[in-house]
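Lab notebook, bench 4. Still working through the backlog of constructs that have no structural model yet. Next entry is a single chain of 73 residues. Request: give me the structure tokens for it.
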Amino acid sequence: MDLLPLIETEMDHGERDPDIAGITVPILGRDRELIGVISLSGLTSRFTDDNIESFLEALMSTSKQVCLAFGSK
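Model written out:
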């Protein structure tokens, strides 16, 4: 089962504080309802294009594992 195309992500790059960035991915339950999120935040300077790609891959992989553990279809 490949949940990755079905998972939306959110990115905040200095929206509330110019020095802070964050990425959030959802955790979906058995009926694909939102039951939580996994997020990563830090200094904007650390959110380079290469790092963002790496961060997203790690967050998406973790999200997929957790979704499957909660019985997401």
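Notes after review: The chain is about 30% helix and 30% strand. The helical segments are 49-69. Flag for follow-up if needed.
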